[in-house]
Design a protein that fits this description.
The chain is an alpha+beta fold and 248 residues long. The protein contains 4 helices and 13 strands. 16% of the residues lie in helices and 46% in strands.
Length: 248
Amino acid sequence: MKIKRRPLMIMIVMLCIATTLSAMTAEQIMREADERQTYDSSRSSGQFKIKDRFGTKVSTFDAWSKGADESLIEFTSVAERGQKVLRTEDSIYLYYPDAEELIRMQGSALRQGMLGSDISYEDMTGGKDRLSQYDIVLEEDSELVFGRDCHVLTLTAKTRSVPYPKEIVWIDKENFIVMRAEYYTKSGRLLKEMETLSVGTLSGIEVATETRISDKMKTDTETIMILDELEVNIRIDDDLFSLDELSW
């Protein structure tokens, strides 16, 4: 009997070793998630559906990005046509074509909602290299969100330069899309929630195509962001992200 059991025991041990070796660390999960949402360059278009107690407003946009630190959003809907939001490595600027006015966002102004939405200008300042900004702990290795098996990570800020001192994120184990996120103050007060409502394939890449954001400091509001088009690794002139070009 002992001889017969030995191969079975060896198989169990080997299986345990293989499972241990294949398990990802919190840092590896976060790195994979960050890398998958950062492109050398991209162009996209979509819309914001901003809901509050007065109703729903729809704003459309085109956007461009280069790496993790440069991005430009230009609004194309009638009410906001020509308004632009430029993010550089160090700053965020707003341009209003009617007033031909350029504003650098700083201080408490960064916490204002973009176009009155639940997405603040401060949200845009958070870089995509969270490994350097947060201490990361894997809380759960398997939890379902909208039927998708997710890793659950807790992120605690290393520096005051990030928008939120603490985040809890649920990352899809298959495609590494953030399916849900909660954003907290240092004392543990919930500030904002994000949920990925729909995942689709654009330009051969699996991405979040519909996302809901709700600011818990407001009452009866939410913003649905819909991504309609996406092109990645395309040619974009560096001048597009300059202040000289912002007013054109």
